[in-house]
Amino acid sequence: MRFMNHFLFSLLLSLAGLILFRPSWPLLYLFLGLVSGLLPDIDESRSFLGRKIRPVGWLLKHRGITHSALPVFFLGFGIWLVTKDFVFVYMVAVPYSGHLLLDSFTKAGIKPLLPFSRRSVHGPFRTGGLFDRMLQFFWLFIIAFLMVWAIQLFLP
Ligand SMILES: [Zn+2]
Asked: Model's pTM, two decimal places?
């Protein structure tokens, strides 16, 4: 999926997290959720985050280990051990998993069980294709709704 699709879906999941858990630092958690949802593509040196930390893209194969359940587990568990903050865990693990879910709909797919299994999960859709663009519109509608809800919750 394209950057914008991942960005919007991360925004949607992060807003849902804010509404569910009402943390005291909503903007910090929102930022965390957005970065987490874009993090898997750090293995692609032309991606938004990959361009900023290029050597990662040179070292890792695109849609390899960063597009598997392993980093979700380690990040989520590691953050829980250090912070004991469930909202923090949500804001990292859920948008990250959302990215993997979206990529699993594409023809290229992902290998969720790397490095233990090379079995891939993929769908019929092309990155940048009609489904990719239609999903972005769908996310926008939900985001608008969640945004109004979140603003009402957090503004005095
Ligand atoms: Zn990806």
From this structure: 0.92
